[in-house]
Amino acid sequence: MGVTEAWASYRWEQSANLSTQNSQANASNLKTFLSAVRLAHQGTDAGALPLSALVPAKTSEVEKPKAKMIITSRRDYPLTKNFPYSLEHLQASYCKLARIDTRVLCLKKLRKLDLSHNHIKQLPATIGDLVCLQELNLHDNHLESFSGALCNSTLQKSLQFLDLSQNKIKALPIQFCQLRELVNLKLDDNELIRLPFKIGQLDHLRFLSAARNKLPYLPSDFRKLCLENLDLFGNPFEQPNPLVPNIQLKIPLTLLECAARATINSRIPYGCHLLPSHLCEDLEVAKTCQCGGSCLSSFIQITVTMNLHHVAHTVVLVDNMGGTEAPIICYFCSLDCYSQFLDRYLQSNG
Question: So which residues are the signal peptide here (predicted)?
Fold first, then answer.
């Protein structure tokens, strides 16, 4: 074996050792390596080179890719070096972060991201590029909104846990209910004046808390939920009065209203490639009458009382009086439908 071959063999051995042992290397091995390089360069015979046999590293010596990192103070937050790309769980709490670090958005294996107890005001749309993200905790930040772009991202297929509690959010976007894999949703201690209109589309949702907000009533779609646990404590729910309707009915119906009702009731396919985007958005938030028919902007609206046990197995009391009832909106597409409801209501209430 010539010097070149010996040198190549030794270099391979040493690189193999270095790649598996990393921080286990010591100064003595390094000196031997440098000595062999110098002697080989001077033309020393291969047999005289201080080559060592390749010794496989022990399992305990092999450094595994880092999957979890927990940071709970600004002092420990890395400012100059990148996060390990192998991370699956990252917690960076109490770090006084005003925005989400762009380095975090490069962690494509991330499944759990906890940025609670920071000062974050806005979420970048690129969070939606974290294709494996299942849990997102943004508790106790300064958020005022949740982007519709995030709801249309790959989070639709991955996100199961979302904590937006203790922020300053007043409303969630129409697109929020595209996050259909959600199982656990925390919205406590915000400034919500309404829940998502189509919340009933979240058919995997099992845990919902929206305590201490400013909800006057629940959306009609709320009755479609099937929850294990529900907490709506401390909201200023209005007293329902079915005898005082909000009449938005326009007679005769406009051509737009007739077309919209026909499209939805007959399940005619539509999309932005066929209709202007604003019409598609209107159709997405069409109301459903008690008769099963749809209405767009011509309807009668009332609030009625619903026992929350109809949608949840366990219900946290909604007030200090021990109540488990809350007002929910009902829509009627015509005077006929409202009259039929009124007859039943008056009969059941004596």
Answer: none
